[in-house]
Amino acid sequence: MAFEVCMPQLGLTMEEGTVSQWIKHEGDAVKTGDVLLEITTDKLTNEVTSEHDGVLLKIVAQEGEDVPVKGLLCYVGQSGEAVGDAPAAAAATPAAPAAPAAPVTAAPVPAPVAAGGARIRISPLARKTAAKLGVDVSGIVGSGPSGRIRQQDVLAAANAPKAAAPVAAEPAPAAKPVSKTGLELMEGDTVSKLAGMRKVVAQRMLQSHTEIPPVTQNTKVDVTELMKFRKMLLAETGNKYSVNDLILKATAKCLRQHPEVLVSLDGDQIIQRAHVNLGMAVALDAGLIVPVIRDADRMGLDALSAAAKDLASRAKGNKLTPDEYKGSTFSVSNLGMFGIETFTPIVNQPDAAILGVCAVEDELVMDDEGNISKHQVMRLSFTYDHRLIDGAVAAKFVMALRDLLEKPMSIIL
């Protein structure tokens, strides 16, 4: 009996996943626990393993394809078994194990290289198929993510009429990318599918921007004493707290004192949040992820700093679990390390507000007696959902946070 392998639900809110890469291929022997494929969920890459011994009989979902939760990915069973609506596939499957022998002896197969010396992006199965059929992959335009060549591209090239060969050999016209909206593309432009983390970010940012009437208030904070306080902590404790650690701690304390900011809109009702769960925006090469520090207001500075560093490190290493980037009640986005003076962060739903943290800058300040001295200042950009939070409420929260940062000893008291 052949077993179906379906798209797992790796989080309560997960609705679909994208097939990133098949590790096993049709005809490969499979043991329980072997990784069959990699999938990209909301914002992470996860492995799907086999729960049975046997052979990978048929791949149903191709690389780059979006599959809903519980959607069929492949079949695992005993060699020769009929699967799905294609009994013929089972007959072709036994011959598959012989295919790897061909690419082993073919020198150009392991790492195909284009004429310009660049490595050709091609899936292992497509490479095996090309070697078996004698297809030159250097002229194939891949239909997979980032132009990756898939098996179906190789088969299409193999079945193309010979008369079309000269056309395929012609330069740019055959490989010219196509715009779906009529956008004029110029020479050198490349087209890739909006998928994975970037797709999720795009969807959520558009949803937030279209559903929420946002207001952003920018406030300047004198952080001269905060920077001195940070140096004092380093000298006395040996702990190298980041500016972000102190801001997170101050924000958590301020949120507990101003619960009116901890709200969410649920249809026609308002939810008052009981927990200060800080979402901390972390930039990755593929997009943005917001791991959550739960009950941050109950943590001491040491624990909060350790949690922030751990979550950021594992986020960049793609090692977060789905539950670790869910459930925020307020978010913080820090672009200060990039020298950003001010910006407009987008609310991370279902939160009602987000704090944007900007760069620390030197500024000359004149006191009441006309004396000029150098101070360090930082700007905070506070964006909130005006359906839930009024301007005066937002201003009081930011002023309270400013006072904490300007009198840093109160942050840890």
UniProtKB/TrEMBL annotation:
<feature type="domain" description="Peripheral subunit-binding (PSBD)">
    <location>
        <begin position="121"/>
        <end position="158"/>
    </location>
</feature>
<dbReference type="GO" id="GO:0006086">
    <property type="term" value="P:pyruvate decarboxylation to acetyl-CoA"/>
</dbReference>
<keyword id="KW-0450">Lipoyl</keyword>
<dbReference type="Pfam" id="PF00364">
    <property type="entry name" value="Biotin_lipoyl"/>
</dbReference>
<dbReference type="Pfam" id="PF02817">
    <property type="entry name" value="E3_binding"/>
</dbReference>
<protein>
    <recommendedName>
        <fullName>Dihydrolipoamide acetyltransferase component of pyruvate dehydrogenase complex</fullName>
        <ecNumber>2.3.1.-</ecNumber>
    </recommendedName>
</protein>
<keyword id="KW-0808">Transferase</keyword>
<dbReference type="InterPro" id="IPR004167">
    <property type="entry name" value="PSBD"/>
</dbReference>
<dbReference type="GO" id="GO:0016746">
    <property type="term" value="F:acyltransferase activity"/>
</dbReference>
<comment type="similarity">
    <text>Belongs to the 2-oxoacid dehydrogenase family.</text>
</comment>
<dbReference type="Pfam" id="PF00198">
    <property type="entry name" value="2-oxoacid_dh"/>
</dbReference>
<dbReference type="InterPro" id="IPR036625">
    <property type="entry name" value="E3-bd_dom_sf"/>
</dbReference>
<dbReference type="InterPro" id="IPR023213">
    <property type="entry name" value="CAT-like_dom_sf"/>
</dbReference>
<dbReference type="InterPro" id="IPR000089">
    <property type="entry name" value="Biotin_lipoyl"/>
</dbReference>
<keyword id="KW-0012">Acyltransferase</keyword>
<dbReference type="InterPro" id="IPR011053">
    <property type="entry name" value="Single_hybrid_motif"/>
</dbReference>
<keyword id="KW-0670">Pyruvate</keyword>
<keyword id="KW-0614">Plasmid</keyword>
<dbReference type="GO" id="GO:0045254">
    <property type="term" value="C:pyruvate dehydrogenase complex"/>
</dbReference>
<dbReference type="InterPro" id="IPR045257">
    <property type="entry name" value="E2/Pdx1"/>
</dbReference>
<dbReference type="InterPro" id="IPR001078">
    <property type="entry name" value="2-oxoacid_DH_actylTfrase"/>
</dbReference>
<feature type="domain" description="Lipoyl-binding">
    <location>
        <begin position="2"/>
        <end position="77"/>
    </location>
</feature>
